[in-house]
Amino acid sequence: MTMCPVCGRAVDEAAAKVQTGQTAHGAKEVDPKQGTRQFHDGKWYYFDSLGCRSKFTARPDEFLKKPAQ
């Protein structure tokens, strides 16, 4: 388990990576209710929700400089 850098909730990395389908163009689909992830500055970050990932995407430095809330 890892912690969401935005809200501090636990995220199961394995569950966030499980492929649930495939797009018409062959991209992997996952269930965002199980967690989601984003690659930033050479590292994968895991989030408990799409909302947290969106907040991180908008201001990653804000969340990386301080401990999760």
Structure description:
- It is built from three helices and six strands; from the N terminus they run ββαββββαα.
- The chain has 69 residues and is of the alpha+beta class.
- A hairpin with a 6-residue loop joins β1 and β2.
- The two termini are 17 Å apart.
Our Rg estimate from Cα atoms comes to 12 Å
Low-confidence stretches: none
How many separate domains?
1
Instruction: Please tell me the overall pLDDT.
Output: 90
What string, H for helix and E for strand, traces the elements in order? EEHEEEEHH
The total of helices stands at 3
Strand neighbour order, sheet with most strands: 1-2
Which percent bin holds the helix content? Answer: 25-40%
Strand composition percent: 25-35%
Helical/strand content category: alpha+beta
Distance between the termini: 17 Å
DSSP E strands, number: 6
The profile of the biggest β sheet is: 2 strands, antiparallel
Large-scale geometry: globular
Task: Give a nutshell description of this structure.
28% of the residues lie in helices and 30% in strands. With 69 residues, the protein is an alpha+beta fold. The protein has one domain.
Index terms:
alpha+beta; two-stranded antiparallel ribbon
Give the SSE layout.
Blueprint: E1 2-3, E2 10-11, H1 13-17, E3 19-22, E4 28-30, E5 36-40, E6 43-47, H2 50-58, H3 60-64
Antiparallel strand pairs: 1-2, 3-4, 5-6
